[in-house]
Design a protein that fits this description.
Strand order of the largest sheet: 5-6-8-9-10-7
Distance between the termini: 37 Å
CATH architecture of the largest domain: 3-Layer(aba) Sandwich
Radius of gyration: 19 Å
Helix content: 25-40%
Largest sheet: 6 strands, mixed
CATH class of the largest domain: Alpha Beta
Strand content: 15-25%
Low-confidence stretches: none
Number of helices: 10
Structural class: alpha/beta
Oligomer: single chain
CATH topology of the largest domain: Udp-n-acetylmuramoylalanyl-d-glutamate--2,6- Diaminopimelate Ligase, Chain: A, domain 1
Order of helices and strands: HEEHEHEHHEEHEEHEHEHHE
Number of domains: 2
Shape: elongated
Number of strands: 11
CATH superfamily of the largest domain: NIF3 (NGG1p interacting factor 3)-like
Amino acid sequence: MTNAKTLGQAFDVLLQPDKFRDYGPNGLQVEGDREVKLLVSGVTASRALIEAAIEAQADAIFVHHGLFWRGQDGRIVGWMRERLRLLLTHGIHLFAYHLPLDAHPELGNNAQLGRLLGWQADGRFGDQDLGFLGVSTQPWSRPQALADHVSAVLSRPVTCVGDMGQQVRRVAWCTGGAQGYFEAAIAQGVDAFITGEISEPQAHLARETGVAFLACGHHATERYGAPAVAARVAQDLGLQHRFIDIDNPA
């Protein structure tokens, strides 16, 4: 069997959190009281995921979005109290890795999304090199065709803004809420930028520069890193692993 210290060390070796400036603590966020046989992975440490992990009789949970963030209210009340109560009552360990999980070159959110959508990464860009650059193995003649492909693969609507007549060959992508990376992507000379969310300024930039902006869902673009990392670590340590996807329209 594996304890929380051994499991945390395995995650740290793989994801190297000390290399990143992040918005919250990476690693063990809530310590349980049990040896680990079953590891559950998910995107966000929501109450629904915690309850599903309890139902599955999990010993540890591994997520991308943990419970604690820089600048948040530190009081343990309301929804925070309930999530912690469930974890502590059932002795479940909670591990969370944010930017390190986005950035891993093979198993991270960006790498896994690129693999899923058929893009060959050949470069990085943006703050802390979180964004990926690459070429589509199936060049799309127009942004809407690319948007339709992404929508079909991710099973959700995609917002596409920009020059609909532009041929798409070179793409940039960064999962989740990376709309602030759009200008850096434009500077790389790409034809399209793919992320999870769009804010008001990006629509104007897409129209004015001709670079297509595709907003494909924060949750939908970040479903793939956590199970990939958890499955690898579970295999290395001889643990069982189960991915539980809690649907989120955002």
